[in-house]
């Protein structure tokens, strides 16, 4: 392993792997350090929706071959409330934008395979313990690998190490501001070996709480239930999960929810958080290391990918010309997009979930908002534009 590189990339999730791919293509050397093993990173069940801009970025760097072959193109979503469904059509409301259903696990597998095929450095089981010299021109990443302590000297360090990452802690606390919101409910996500009961995703508001029907392939469904914080996923039987899903998706007409064996289950707390700024000296933050959103708007993975694209461009400008103009603009430009996604994710979350003890007044407001989306193409377009993805800034 080299002890010196241009960009030390901490974290081998979507942000770190895409950044590494883009840097490699721009001729900038980097080393990716990932604390987990390859199998864990490739199996970690997370997001499933790619915006048009994310797909475009993956195509442009030659990482979309399998995505183009296997990803499912979706032209809309269904919102359900009061036992009725309403479809939001993305292309007609957004000037032609659409999304892809392609699991984060598959995207991560593709990017890992490409990096290894390039013979470019990517270290698993490499846990970064600290970054020193953040205020100098030569920051150092300290990590442990195979029982040994090692150092990587860098021109820049990219903190792509997720919400609990360590790179952020290299920035003096007084230079950072964190904005946070914790929600009084979690998501219970399950994977089931059953063909999806719908062609497009269903986001359901119900008196029993929120439910989402998504998918991974024509043979595998991905479903989520709003549950109280602290719910033990093992405490539910498969039958209880399917009964609850069926009750929340209930709709007038002949629609049926198909059941099948549940193969994975996990509970995920919902949180919004933003750390500002996203750059300090030669330390750069991208993806969940800088911001997280509740999953209802399907923005987390897409924000991580957009950060990587903008950051790679800025580093390429620095490498080619020595100017830091784009790096200087990185944090402000991304925070504008991040706060837009934060607002949309908060909006989707608070419109569709029932908070514990929620008043009938607040429920009426939610239903009124959903009725408005159904009645007005302008209101529907606002949702569609945000969901399908706004142009990259
Ligand atoms: P991550 O994917 O978290 O990658 C960070 C990487 O850094 C990890 O591989 C981690 O192992 C590594 N790392 C951490 N610390 C260190 C260290 N000290 N040294 C070296 N490596 C380190 N978004 C949606 O849109 N829809 C969803 O349904 C959805 N579900 C989610 C479920 C869960 C449980 C979580 C946590 C997130 C979910 N998200 C979802 C959000 C989405 O998956 C993230 O926004 C996305 O993974 C962000 O990518 P990232 O690369 O920034 O961070
Ligand atoms: C999925 C997750 C989301 O949070 C979402 O809004 C849509 C789809 C998914 O895992 O498929």
Automatic annotation (TrEMBL):
Origin: domain of life: Bacteria
FAD-binding domain segment(s): 4-344
A Pfam family annotated for this UniProt entry: FAD_binding_3
Listed GO MF terms: FAD binding; monooxygenase activity
Gene3D superfamilies (UniProt xref): D-Amino Acid Oxidase, subunit A, domain 2 (3.30.9.10), FAD/NAD(P)-binding domain (3.50.50.60)
Alphabetical list of InterPro entries matching this protein: FAD-bd, FAD/NAD-bd_sf, PheA/TfdB_FAD_monoxygenase
Matches recorded under NCBIfam families: PRK08243.1
Name under which the protein is recorded: 4-hydroxybenzoate 3-monooxygenase
Protein's organism: Streptomyces boncukensis
